[in-house]
Amino acid sequence: TLKTLSLRSNQIGNQGAQSIANALAQNRILMELNLSKNKIGNDGVAPFIKVLQKHRSLAKIDFYGNPIDKYMAKAIRIVMLRTSSISYVILNSKCVGTRKVQHLADALVSIKTLKIVELKNNQLGDDGVRCIIQALANSQMLTVLNLQTNLITSAGILDLVAMLHTLPKISKLDLSCNKIGDEGAKHIANLLETNTTLNVINLHRNEIGSDGAQYLSDVLIHNQTLKKLGMSFNKSNDCCILEFLVAIRSNSAIVVTLDNKQIEEKFTQQLANALKNNTSVRTLNLNSNKMNDQCLGYLVDTLKNHKGITSLNLDNNQITDEGAQYLCEIMKNNSKLKILSFRSNKIGNEGSRMIVNALINNTTLEKLYPTQHQYGVAETICAIRNGDVPNRIHLEYKRIEDIDLQYLCHSLRYNMRITTINLNNNKIGDIGAQHITDILRNNTNITELLLHSNSISDEGAKYLASALKDNKTLMKLNLYRNKIGINGAKSFAEALSKNTTILEIDLRRNESGYAAIVGAIIELRNNKTLTYLHLDDCNINSQDIQLLATALKDNQTLTSLDLRNNTIGDNGVQILCDVLRNNKTLTTLGLAYNKIGSDGAHYLYNTFQNRNVDTALQTLSLHGNESALCAMVEVFLTSSRDQIRTEINLAEKRIGDKEMQFLVDVLRNNTVLTTF
């Protein structure tokens, strides 16, 4: 009985091969058939595939050296393994065209032990997929099916889903780079309603929109089997979010980043559910997502009780004061959270204060990053508490109001590291000043306190002055441009009468010029090296000058005194001249725009005209006053004393009869002037 037949190296073509296949169908004894090195093509090999499905005796067939395609050679090898335990078929980028697909399907139909089938990039189309799934219907061991890049639409997916329902072990399905769209996603969602074996599905690049993402999202609320869902590069951003949601609920990732995903409320709910049972997440980034208060509300129950998250980033969203309440809940209840960032949101002052209040009772938060230019108090309190602040606190232009200072002062009360507090250009009033006194009374390390451009009035000044009475450390106090009047200034004068520590106190440009003078007097008394005194534009009148004169009486260090843009008048000038008559150090005097008349000009000339070269005024500013004589005095008093003046230019000085008489008197004995 014939068991081996060799027809090697002949001229057999497709027709001859067809005849051999027909004969083989009736033969049940032949075990080996050698048809190598003939002229058999794909059409000649195709009949053997169907025959061999039922032929059990033939164990070896050889088509080597024939003009057949690789996919056909693969099909023959597959069908020859019909009696063995073949577990995988990988045929990528080879099986293009309906006829070729059918040959492959014919080869697969009898294989019941397949576990992995990879047919990616074969342009199967919906018809080709139908052929394949029909052939795989009996593959009850199949766990992996890869149909990536095969031009499959929703129609092909409908047939595929019907077959997948019958496979008890399928766990991984790759349909990426097809065209299933929203309708195809709906079919996949229907599959997931009952399927309990699939844990990986890849749907990258499938033209899926928001509707398709919603179909899948709805079913995944109840399907807990799926561990990984690939959804990137689809039409809707919702797809990417859904991919992350599935990954989060089953992944052990430490960092989860969902930045720039435009998360909507419906997905926020699912994110909360996904995080609820995943305690491995340590960092959650939800930046730039247009998340509103409602979205944060869905997350709050999960986040306030989460045992793993230590860093929560919510920058550049749309959280308002209402959402700030949710942030407070998280801060009050979550003892694991170390870093909280919500920069560039829409939280106002009310929300900021709620956060600060929550921070007071939170002992675990280490870093807080609020919206830029706001909430500096909250950020600073957190930094102070955790020792993450240098010796200077800068909180200028932070819109800080009185109520905000209560919390800051509480944190600073016993902090011995901070030496400088800058609160310039805020909205601090008298109540805020009262809170600041708490720092000054208890903190013995503060040397510099800056409150420039706030709203502190006499009442606030009274509080501050009282705290400074026995303070031995503060060296600089800046209250420039507040609302302090005479009474507030008197409070400082009385409280600091014996305080020699403060070297610089700035009370300029308050409501009363008296305040500026008090500050200047204290500086002159305590700072024995002070050379420059700025008192320009401070509402100083002649009565205020009387107080300053007392302080200047014995001063021999001041070289420059600037009193421009005040209202000292002739009386004020006379007071100054009396006290400066014997002064040997002052070389610069600014008296522009002070309503000085001719009498004041005469006082100045008579006081300073006889100074020698070393003590003469080098700079005298008298422009903008009431008398033109001031301009002439300025010229004569600032002329160089070590040179002979031969020319004087008094053009456009508004010279009248009085001024001319003054000029005549001054030049009466002059013998060197040649040009006038």
From TrEMBL:
Predominant location: cytoplasm
Protein name (Swiss-Prot/TrEMBL): Uncharacterized protein
Highest rank taxon of the organism: Eukaryota
GO CC terms: cytoskeleton
Cellular compartment(s): Cytoplasm, Cytoskeleton
Keywords from the named record: Cytoplasm, Cytoskeleton
UniProt xrefs under InterPro entries: DRC5, Leu-rich_rpt, LRR_dom_sf
Annotated PANTHER family: NLR FAMILY CARD DOMAIN CONTAINING 3, YNEIN REGULATORY COMPLEX SUBUNIT 5
Gene3D superfamilies, A to Z: Ribonuclease Inhibitor
Organismal lineage: Eukaryota, Metazoa, Spiralia, Gnathifera, Rotifera
